Amino acid sequence: MKKITVLVDLYYLKAAVAGIGSYIRELEASCKDHGSDHINYIFTHDINKLVGKAIFLNSNNRIIRWIFQIRYLIYKQIQLPLKILFYNADYVICPDYIAPYFTFKAKRVTVLHDSLFWDYKKNYSFLWNKYFISLINLGINSRTQIITTSNYSKKNLIKILGSDKSISYLYQSFNYHKTSSSNYITPKNYLLHIGSFEKRKDLITLVKAFKIVDDSNLKLVLAGAQIINGNSEVLNEIKTFIVQNKLEDKVILAGYISKEEASILYKNARIYVFPSLDEGFGIPVLEALSFSIPVICSDIDVFKEVGGEYVEYFKVGDFISLSKKITSILKSKNLKQKNNIMHLNKFSRKNFIKGFEEIILDSND
Questions:
Q1: What pLDDT is recorded for position 309?
Q2: Can you list the domains of the chain with their CATH numbers?
Q3: Residue 323: exposed, middle, or buried by beta-carbon count in 10 A (0-12, 13-18, 19+)?
Q4: Distance CA 300, CA 297 (A)
Q5: 337 membership: H or E segment, kind and range
Q6: Which of 109, 25, 4 is nearest to 356 (CA)?
Q7: Please, what is the Cα angle at 42 between 350 and 67, to 5 degrees?
Q8: Which residues contact 282 (CB under 8 A, 6 or more apart)?
Q9: What pLDDT is stored for residue 126 in this prediction?
Q10: pLDDT of residue 178
Q11: What is the pLDDT of residue 182?
Q12: Among candidates 86, 136, 155, 140, which has minimal Cα distance to 109?
């Protein structure tokens, strides 16, 4: 069998925060660790040279952000097509929503992680939203295979893009590094959330719920990027609530943390809480479960799909419901969740890349 050449675009790792960054890293590792012998994977960049290049990573400087977007546009529409031509690629995988308009003979495999750009337009400026959605549409034609991260996201994208588009969902992998030793110090008794301070994450509901939990020694750790693309609205709302309710010594705003630091936070947390109003997937659910700690999520469909019976749920947006769930788990004698191995194996790197390959090989027949 003639080998199929698949070019995997890693460029967006220069600016990717949180979910998309993890997705790109997992895709690269999955290709290397478990890729088929019948497929020749070529990467547009050396991932080791991209990781840690923080100049474009969630910069608060608007000029720097626009410099990246100009470079990104030139790369996607000129440099990437030239790479496709140079490597004579049969497929190009673009894991960051956007594929180039010209791909020559190569078929596009484009990852649309969710439908949030369409569903939450108010979270983005009018021009930025219109520009980005135009770029997405530019890279989609009748030969584009769209992949998303959950069945929930697939249903939403079909509503937006139409049922005539070829859309499949693949559960992404996670592979958490469990640090055995670290100098990172955590509180002794705390609830945890790790994720960017975006409006849809609904962190204020978590803070309000925490306030009325009856445990004087309990703390709340909120880790993750606090200002997203220059927007500090969520951070300011949380800080105001903290001051007004005298929670300065109880709520810890840890800021952006490394994977090693996150590992320690997961390991020592009493409960992980994920209160989002909407998500495309929810990798922290799996990460927390892998550390055998209890997980509480809002009762949105995607969390039920990803977490299944291994997660406790509260009514989305209801801080009283959440506080009762936290209190109930804290009073439980058996906090550890060690019976979830089979569930977590569904999200392995091997399954992740095999899903991509089934789509590629099926369309190549």
A1: 92
A2: 4-173+348-364 (3.40.50.2000), 190-345 (3.40.50.2000)
A3: buried
A4: 8
A5: none
A6: 109
A7: 105
A8: 274, 276, 297, 302, 303, 306, 307
A9: 81
A10: 63
A11: 67
A12: 140
In 3-state terms, the chain is what percent helix, strand and coil (to 5)? 45, 15, 40
Structure confidence at residue 346 (pLDDT): 92
pTM above 0.85, yes or no: yes
Q: Which amino acid is at 82?
A: L
Q: How far apart are CA 316 and CA 300, in angstroms?
A: 7
pLDDT at 335: 60
Task: Measure CA of the first residue to CA of the last residue in the chain; give whole Å.
Answer: 12
Contact partners, residue 71, CB within 8 Å, separation at least 6: none
Give the C-alpha separation, 6 to 352, whole Å. 16
The pLDDT, as a whole number, for residue 259 is 85
As a dihedral over the C-alpha atoms of residue 186, residue 187, residue 190, residue 191, rounded to 10 degrees, the angle is -30
Residue 66 near residue 78, CB atoms below 8 Å: no
Residue 269 to residue 202: CA distance in whole angstroms: 20
- C-beta of residue 305 within 8 angstroms of C-beta of residue 323: no
pLDDT for the residue 298:
98
What tokens does 219 get?
A: 């703390």
Measured in residues, the chain has a length of: 365
Crossing angle, helix 349-364 and helix 18-34, to 10 degrees? 70
Tell me which residue has tokens 């439980």: 332
Q: Which residues of the chain have pLDDT under 50?
A: none
* Res 231: pLDDT: 79
Whole-angstrom CA distances from 247 to 190, 211, 233, 335 are 14, 8, 19, 26
Distance, CA of 99 to CA of 136 (rounded, Å): 7
Task: Locate 178 and state its tokens.
Answer: 């469990």
Token pair in block for residue 364 = 């190549």
User: What does the alpha-carbon distance between residue 218 and residue 266 come to, in Å, rounded to a whole number?
Assistant: 16
